[in-house]
Amino acid sequence: ELSIEQRFVPESCPRAVRPGDFVRYHYLGAFPDGTRFDSSYDRGSTFNVFVGKGQLIAGMDEALVGMCVNERRYVRIPPRLAYGTEGVSGVIPPNAVLHFDVLLIDLWNSEDQVQVQTYFRPEKCPRTVQVSDFVRYHYNGTFLDGTLFDSSHNRMRTYDTYVGIGWLIAGMDQGLLGMCVGEKRIITIPPFLAYGEEGDGKDIPGQASLVFDVALLDLHNPKDGIAIEDQQVPESCERRSQTGDFVRYHYNGTLLDGTLFDSSYSRNRTYDTYVGKGYVIAGMDEGLLGVCTGEKRRIIIPPHLGYGEEGRGKIPGSAVLVFDIHVVDFHNPSDSVSITVNYKPSNCTVLSKKGDYLKYHYNASLLDGTLLDSTHSLGKTYNIVLGFGQVVVGMDMGLQDMCVGERRTVVIPPHLGYGEDGVEGEVPGSAVLVFDIELLELVSGLPEGYMFVWNGEVSPNLFEEIDQDHNGEVLLEEFSEYIQAQVDSGKGKLAPGFDFEKIVKNMFTNQDRDGNGKVTAEEFKLKDQEAKEEHDEL
Question: Could you say which enzyme class this protein belongs to (predicted)?
């Protein structure tokens, strides 16, 4: 009788041989005395055949039924179920009992379809693979018995391809459809949907079922534009970015599977760029339009609007990019100072002008509200002479025409503030500045071009009064003492906010026309006299 001994049965047996199935198996054929008469191992290829269709001796047809892939059976076949009384000339004698040591490698049926087993699917799946999509995935390729024939992991590079347009074997084209990014599935493909009877000529033999363990990393379609998700827009959004604006933003850049490739936070510095001018990839140029200061958004960029087929640095070719951005501020190079008056006293007749000495309090911040500096925390006012470059240009502009007690908010673009360089450790480069200002004191300045004026009539013997030792020469010390006396007595007034010694030295130097450190009567002239002489000369 036919004798079957199961020498090894795998723990998992999802499918067993049935009549009509196609099998691939290895065997050793021997007589009862151990003499070997045949071996598939010696030929270096499996024996491939349909079961139950008369292509095998009857005993083998029967013995293979019920086998699992990777199962090993020891089969004893009597002559009547083998080669009978005839035998096989020169190989099998008549009435020979045959022993076969059989190992099943592969099993499929002509009615099989692609089998998909998903063993991980992310909770969030906004999009699945469709025909004509371009995908990037990792895989391990094995035969049904678990033998590895290929792996993208070993090459440390994804397999990148279009789906459904014939770039892949038919079974893989089918097996990838409906996958989510991050999903992992096992795709089992019968040979007639893979490499068929011939195999691939290298690693895959003919009539081999293939098993692919696939992890989908990326997915896009050539028709895709950018996608914007997870917007968090501030309640107050007075202005949105436009082409030509300069934007400062933080970002985390990841691939679709969440792999981080870059982050401005790790550098502790915003990324600063013009929008719509080609300074960044096309997708980011588009994604930064219409943002508000303080807004957060996710920008998903397909590779044809990112770094294309070649990729860049840590970004692989044909990769979809995901940027989670936070807009810190933006401005336009054509922007001027913006002034918003928050409070103005009813009595507001004296307005600040160039040359006035101002004392004021301020809070300085960035557009996103980050506090930079405050005079309140220092417990003292900030004091300047308006229009003399003692503050940034934008602040000189923002303090004009202000009255004591007035409060205003002054927004200063970087080209009127601290520019591209900023102030190291204090003000970031290209930052828009916001000053909340309260003017506390105003001392009117002198007419433009004057550092000292008389409050009354000028003495006709002015030089003699200054020349205290009456030697016909005035030294800096004499000149300084005289000016100080006029200021103390109220007869003269110095430009407020400047250092007394510097003003006096500057006035003296203007009079000392030959530069010898002494002023003579011939050199000494008042400002109105100088202007008249110059006019006469002209």
Answer: isomerase
261 is catalytic: yes
Is residue 57 part of the annotated active site? The answer reads: no
* Residue 442: closest CA among 358, 347, 361: 358
Instruction: Give the active site residue among 159, 246, 307, 362.
Output: 307
257: helix, coil or strand?
Answer: coil
DSSP conformation letters of 483-497: HHHHHHHTSEEEPTT
In 3D, which of 403, 49, 373 has the Cα closest to residue 197? 49
Selected catalytic residue, list 251, 271, 360, 479:
251
Domain 338-443, what fold? Answer: Chitinase A; domain 3 (3.10.50)
Which one of 31, 47, 149, 261 is the catalytic residue?
A: 261
From 4, 281, 315, 466, the catalytic residue:
281
- Which residue in the list 159, 323, 362, 482 is annotated as catalytic? 323
**pLDDT attached to residue 531:** 52
Nearest CA to 358 out of 400, 417, 394 is that of 400
Average confidence (pLDDT) over 284-300: 96
Distance CA 538, CA 531 (A): 11
> At what angle are helices 500-511 and 476-489 packed, to 10 degrees?
120
CATH superfamily of this structure's domain 452-534:
EF-hand (1.10.238.10)
- Amino acid letter at 64? L
**DSSP secondary structure, 454-470, as one string:** ESSPPPTTHHHHH-TT-
Q: How far apart are CA 310 and CA 331, in angstroms?
A: 33
Q: Which CATH class is domain 3-108?
A: alpha beta
Q: CB count, 10 Å around CB of 526?
A: 12
Q: Is 464 left (phi over 0), alpha (psi -120 to 50) or beta?
A: alpha
Active site residue 469: no
Domain residue extents for the chain? 3-108, 115-220, 227-331, 338-443, 452-534
Q: Is 251 tagged catalytic?
A: yes
Write down the architecture of domain 227-331 according to CATH.
Roll (3.10)
- The model carries a pTM of 0.78
Which of 64, 89, 67, 63 minimizes the C-alpha distance to 78? 63
- At residue 470 the predicted structure's pLDDT band, cuts being 50, 70 and 90, is confident
* Two tokens, residue 9: 């049965």
Q: Which two tokens stand for residue 199?
A: 């195999």
Q: How far is CA 176 from CA 163, 216, 290, in A?
A: 7, 9, 37
Q: Is 83 a catalytic residue?
A: no
536 is catalytic: no
pLDDT of residue 530: 59
- Return the CATH number of the domain spanning residue range 115-220: 3.10.50.40
Which residue in 150, 200, 203, 262 is the catalytic one? 262
Cβ–Cβ under 8 Å, residues 362 and 355: no
